[in-house]
Amino acid sequence: MAYSKEQLVEMYKIMQRCRLFDKKIATESKKGKLVGMFHFGTNQEAFEAGLMPLIGPDDYIKPYHRNHGCLSLCDMKLYVAGMLERTTGYNMGIGGDYHQQDIHGLHILPIDGLIAEDWLHDTGVAMALKLQKKPGVVFSCNGDGGAQMGNLYSAMNFASLFSLPMVFVIINNGVAMTTPTEKECKCSEISGRAAGFNVKGVSVWGQDPIAVREAFEAAIDSARQGQPALVEVMTYRKCGHYFGDPKEYETAEREARMTEKYPDPIPRFEKVLQEMGVCTEEELKGYAKEIKNEIAEAFEWAYQQPKITGDMTKGADKVFSNTEGGKL
Ligand SMILES: Cc1ncc(C[n+]2csc(CCOP(=O)(O)OP(=O)(O)O)c2C)c(N)n1
Ligand SMILES: [Mg+2]
């Protein structure tokens, strides 16, 4: 499908927003202004650029821990405030970075601290939509490591059996924490397993936002017709598992091979946009600058916001709460 300039620029901006947001976290952490464990998505940004623009107001998404792309659905200031544990941010600041969620407003479902538990929770949301005859598709995202867990297979079976509006998403970035994918399983592409559940599975090269988007468009069409789908985005985690991880477990040979197979999606897309005559180099620089400023402003604002105190985190109603601080 041919995309408009507006759509192509939106995809580019999403990639830059993810990359620059992670860079800002790195800078602030080095200054000692941020504490906590942050998982970056360096080199995986075409995934967010391909998927996020397709998520409509009726849909639900459960991001994963390496997923600042969900930012494109959020108010940047509230997101940063939530991340910095400020009471005016999402989840009243209780969620931190990992557990940003907004179930009722933005339909961003909670990420379970235990990897792969949420394949099942998210399938339950799809079941609820079906029972309530509500429109919308549920996107459940996890990594290749999360895809080795049995919950995915229970979830796919259930979604298929009940014809749920469900898209399973695997971000296969070649590693799970310190374990290369080839030591996790014998399949180079995990999507083939979907066929065993009559789920429509596909693997897509994850460095091209257009290819990723097309794969998700087909998956969404299928899910809306009651045929659950699975999209495996093939990419490479260029960064460490967490910010500060020296990645000593990666060999130079593998790093070089994977980088060649999965090159940086941002300069690649910049070249594509220029060759297509969609944007000039100047325009692209302008978008990046605009985003950098937006991020800097959001951090400045968030630093001024009141910090949560210990007593604010107590109480069962605080475990899952929406932006208004209400109960589920
Ligand atoms: C059940 C469980 N086991 C282990 C962990 C620790 N852990 C957090 S992220 C992660 C790696 C997950 O790898 P993958 O799903 O491939 O995602 P990636 O980090 O590569 O994006 C692990 C093992 C956890 N959170 N939950
Ligand atoms: Mg992984």
Largest sheet: 5 strands, parallel
Q: What form results from the Cα inertia axes?
A: globular
Molecules bound to protein? thiamine diphosphate, magnesium ion
Average predicted confidence as pLDDT: 93
Count of the domains: 1
Reading the helices and strands in chain order gives HHEHHEHEEEEHEHHH
Give the CATH architecture.
3-Layer(aba) Sandwich
Gap between N and C termini: 40 Å
CATH class: Alpha Beta
CATH fold descriptor: Rossmann fold
CATH superfamily: Thiamin diphosphate (ThDP)-binding fold, Pyr/PP domains
How many helices does DSSP assign? 9
Enumerate the spans where pLDDT stays under 50 for 5 or more consecutive residues.
none
Q: What is the topology, as strand order, of the major beta sheet? A: 1-2-3-7-6
Strand pairing plus helix content: what structural class? Answer: alpha/beta
Report the sheet-strand fraction: 5-15%
Oligomeric form: single chain
- What is the helical fraction, as a range of percent? 25-40%
CA radius of gyration: 19 Å
Number of beta-strand segments: 7
